Amino acid sequence: MFAEDKILIGCNENTEVFLLPKLANRHGLIAGATGTGKTITLKTLAESFSDMGVPVFLADMKGDISGLAKIGSETDKIRTNVEKYNLADKGFRYQAYPVEFWDLFGQKGLPVRVSMSEMGPMLLGKILNLSEAQQGVLNIVFRVADEKSLFIIDIKDLKSMINHVVENKVEYESQYGAIAEKSANTILRSLITLEDQGGNDFFGEPALDLNDFMNVDDNGKGIINILDAQKLSLSPELYSTFLLWMLSNLYQNLPEVGDMDKPKFVFFFDEAHLLFEDITPELGKKIEQIVRLIRSKGVGLYFISQSPADIPDDILAQLGNRVQHALHAYTPKDQKAVKVAAETFRQNPEFDTADVISELGIGQALVSVLEEGGAPGIVHKVDIIPPQSYIGAIDDAMRTDLINLSELKSKYGDAVDPLSAYEMLLEKVDSNPNIESEVPQIDKEIVEEAKVEVEKQEESSQETPQQPGAADVIGGILGTVLGGQQQTKGKKTKKSAQQKAIEKAASQAMNTAAREVTKGIMRGIFGQMK
């Protein structure tokens, strides 16, 4: 709950534990066994950030986080805590929060799409569970596509590129090294599996613009972006890789802001252990680097998992704000997890942390936050502040209404299939290596010839002032090609042959420019397109 310009996380009879907004981008951890209250803590924090005017992203693994969009209702337990800790005097009131629903499969939220070129070969290799040799072939495929300006948007594009590289392996092996057909075939089979998991819905256009996650509503509340992950959780590689793609793009595209009074954006990673399962040391090092540096971009990361032991030590050390719900020590492995969790806190002399972790009730937690100077605070046992929104899932009708009311529906609602590698290879656009170098010269000659013809027409028809001049004709046509409507003076007239020639040339020039732009592709920390 946002109170006194701070985030009130929990209370006991003697203490209130507040998270300072300016330290909220020092990242955090919410841990605990299933059913101990992690979701309640997640919702309470998300509400607080929204009240601060900070946009939030989180994944809804079970469907119950959708209740953020609905006004909360009183229960006996909530009423008891509100009265016990005088929360009403601090501003507690039942309310709904501004929510944007998203879904990689486009069923329970706005469709989330990413082009394969944007994701890049490293993250795509993680989704496909590729071996080192197979990853090498995929890297070559993307390198060829980048250099030949063949944009890989969806799965059919990548299949076409793989087949193209294999068919022309003699040409490419001299430049990139051996291309194993067996590895290429394995990638193709993996792509079929990815299609069965819904990959055709996810990879495509219009691609997600992460700026659309960073909005506030008319009242200044941060929008809470909820990714429906109930179906997605059945494809853990796709889920974890998408979150990594988001993380890397935030890091790559946001400007440095230094220390701020509050975060610009907060990102919750639910089921965080999925991010670190079976990753290569190289990928793990890159994740650790981003976690360490992204706070300077104003982004706070909060990992949610059953145990701190699920998080690599190098990353765990950077999570300054901790909420630990109950862990059950039934086995030696469980006991070790409890010990690890206890050791991550600055100890409170009033109790034994390891003993308390095993005794916490539902809705209780051990909480330690960073103090004013940035040092970890002493751990406290508290009751977590209840959420002000609805506890549970909203019904499908309400979800549908909210999706239909979204201002972003017109932008992301319908998929498009632009010209990309599949179509260009099908039409053999790249069959002649001189095509791209010849087109600009041809365009220039056509434009110059057309300009001369139009000027001749102008000279012979000076008595008709309504006739557009050469500059008007060319400018109008280029305006149309560049994305606007043609501006004409006076009456609309039938296009002359010269006008058509100019329009054709302008169109060719724009297509050429688009191809030239893709030649400048740079890839970021995970190999995704900048």
Topology readout:
Layout (H helix, E strand, L loop, with lengths): L1 E2 L2 E6 L4 E4 L8 E4 L6 H14 L4 E5 L15 H9 L14 E5 L6 E2 L4 H13 L3 H16 L7 H13 L1 H8 L4 H16 L2 H4 L21 E5 L7 H18 L11 E5 L3 H4 L4 H13 L5 E7 L7 H4 L4 E4 L7 H12 L9 H7 L4 E5 L11 E5 L11 H10 L3 H4 L8 H6 L8 H26 L9 H12 L15 H22 L12
Parallel strand pairs: 4-10, 4-11, 5-8, 5-9, 6-7, 6-8, 9-10
Antiparallel strand pairs: 1-2, 2-3, 2-13, 11-12, 12-13
Helix pairs in contact: 3-4, 3-9, 4-5, 4-7, 5-7, 13-14, 18-20, 19-20
Characterization of the model:
This protein has 530 residues and is an alpha/beta fold. The protein has 20 helices and 13 strands. Strands 1, 2, 3, 4, 5, 6, 7, 8, 9, 10, 11, 12 and 13 form a 13-stranded mixed beta sheet that branches. Helix 5 (155-167) runs antiparallel to helix 7. The longest helix is centred in the last third of the chain and has 26 residues, at 435-460. The protein is globular and about 75 Å long.
List keywords for this structure.
13 strands, globular, 20 helices, 13-stranded mixed sheet, 44% helix, 530 residues, alpha/beta
